[in-house]
Amino acid sequence: MHSNLVLRDEIETLAVEGVPPEVFFVLPFATPCPTGTVHFHPAFLANGPQQG
Fold this sequence. Notes:
The chain is largely without helices or strands and 52 residues long.
């Protein structure tokens, strides 16, 4: 087994509100993997065209 391999059970603590865990992927660069809720910058929101 590769020493940098991170098992799925070890990254279950990262989540994005409203996103199912089966479609949210994590590629940690260190262990232990960070924990908590992931928040993206508003520029990455896909809310459709802006009215204005």
